[in-house]
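Subject: sequence -> structure tokens, single chain

Hey, anyone have a minute? Need the predicted structure for the following. Not urgent.
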Amino acid sequence: MTTVRITRTALTRGTLAALSGLLAGFAALTVAELVSAAVRPEASPVTAVGGAAIDRTPAAVKDFAIRNFGENDKLVLQLGIVVTLALFAVVVGLLALRHRRTGSAAVLAFGVVGAASAVSRPDSTGVVDALPSLVGAVAGAALLYVLVGRLTRPRRIAGEEPEENESGWDRRGFLIAATAAAAASTAAGAVGRTLNGRSAQDAVASREAVKLPAPASPAKPIPAGAQLRVPGLPPFTTPNDKFYRVDTALVVPKVDANTWRLRIHGQGVRRDLEFTYQDLLNRPLIEREITLCCVSNEVGGPYIGHARWIGVRLADLLKEAGVKPPSRGGKADQIIARSVDGMTLGTPVEDVMDGRDAMLAVGMNGEPLPFVHGFPVRMLVPGLYGYVSACKWIEDIELTTFADYDPYWVKRKWARKAPIKTQSRIDTPKPFGRPEAGTVMVAGVAWAQHRGIEKVEIRVDDGPWRPAQLAEQDTVDTWRQWSYPWKAEPGGHTLTVRATDGTGEVQTEKRTKTVPDGASGWHSVVVTVD
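Reply:
Had a minute. Here:
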């Protein structure tokens, strides 16, 4: 009986030690959240460590995450960090039961990791970013030390007999301390979240106050024939809340348009320029239909969308700064666009200044940019994948050369230049669908931004290529819908699509991955006709 009692006591103490570790970790995070409200939300340890993890993740792993988790990749990362922290906290709690100071020191060590991650981020404001992680770690280490102290068997005087049923540790004191710690930590976290939320209220208010001016150069109406009436086809214009999002921001930046500034500087700039948000709204604005595509889009993938954008011609701003393209003797051949979160994208100067509708966009589908899509200002260059052209939350434009500077994605082995490849996709019928025999409408979209789509062809099984019916082309910078009435016979079939762009180049059959400059290959779906 004595052996069983001791075993149960040890088990209970071990469980409570693990709980102590979890409470210490929770306290560290909530106190850090509270302190980050006085520093900046991005300096909180989960955000800082998550951002550092994203920065150090190989391109192939990033591509896997986007392919398998889509726009939930950041949520999966955050959950992974929380689970890892929880496991670490349990281990530290058990360690502290045997080595009280060592366990507390482990909490402090993890705080140092968070602090180092915060100050090493591209958008770091300096050593002050280390404070949330360090203060939180101190709070967590102190709490762990106190809680485990309640679980430690007190030293007995030689010859003294313990009272009957005495466990040798302060059960009541532990429960009181643990309950108080949980309540205080929860309160600290709630206050921190509230304060951090208030810091974004000015940004939200500034967006709500925006009234976009009428564009000096409005977009032409979308042709009525650009949208085919085929069930299963996406709308020609993608609603803002359905538009894909792929970026590295663990927390969406909330930027106050009233304090936002954009600087243009660097090689070949005759004079540096700085613009406020209102400065841009006061300029002649252009409105254009432009389809965007992410380089992480697999063959047949969803990371493409179309919107009507309004903004300022980027080439006009560069000319005012004295910038010339390389073809006219300009010193710089690369634009480095910097985001408020430290992201850097590199864009060819020549492409921006060759006459295409490259812009600093302020509006999307008739409203100010949503925060997730770059409010207050983002960059767009038709014909280029987003990672070299579509900087969101932009705040700095530096003129440089490809030889002198490698932006974020180039450092991670993606291509320096990335024109969008000619692609096509079958949207209906869906893969492994079971349409009924008879006439089945096969339909989808094709795109080759800044070149346009000239032809789309469909192949059934290993049969000949047949021309699809094309919807009316809006502009060469937009995607194009297509359809094909297929006389479907019972059995299993493979449908394959390919497109030809406005230059006469046929979409390649060669299958490549997204790294380093976008996927290629024909899209196919397998269906069974009943």
